[in-house]
Specification:
The chain has a five-stranded antiparallel beta sheet, with no helix packed on it. By secondary structure, it is mainly beta. It has one domain: Quinone Oxidoreductase, Chain A, domain 1 (Alpha-Beta Complex). It is 8% helix and 36% strand.
Length: 132
């Protein structure tokens, strides 16, 4: 199975790279990305190669690939649908701390179901996070 991922390869330069996905492990979910958020702060630093070396460890995203400064596959705001995985997640929309990639394998425990009342095209926050 193939996936396409966004890699930062030099200051201000990105590439879409095709990657082969390994077989899914029992504790993983196969997620097809619907959308991902790009941070104007953190990810701009990564794209421009301006992450200070003293911060490389702190800035490392849980499921990123590569190393700072380049090449690096970065990101942490993926919304997708689980195509394969634990029964409780199959067919569900989930949020995951995963880089920008159209299809990916992630630990099922890191795939957080998104409430059905949330639309994919509009922001949604749990009621306890809403400003009153």
């Amino acid at each position: 199975m193939k996936a396409r991922a966004l890699w930062s390869v030099a200051p201000g330069q990105t590439e879409l790279r095709e990657e082969a996905l390994p077989p899914r492990a029992p504790n993983q979910a196969l997620v097809r990305m619907l959308a991902s958020g790009i941070s104007r702060g953190t990810e701009r630093l990564v794209l421009e190669g301006r992450v200070p070396e003293s911060q490389w460890g702190a800035m490392r995203a849980p499921l990123m690939a590569g190393e700072f400064p380049f090449p690096v596959k970065y990101g942490y705001a993926a919304l997708g649908v689980v195509e394969e995985g634990p029964t409780a997640l199959q067919g569900r929309r989930v949020f995951c701390l995963y880089p920008h990639q159209d299809l990916f394998l992630a630990p099922a425990a890191m795939c957080i179901p998104v409430p059905i009342r949330c639309r994919t095209t509009a922001p949604c926050s749990p009621p306890i996070w809403r400003r009153r």
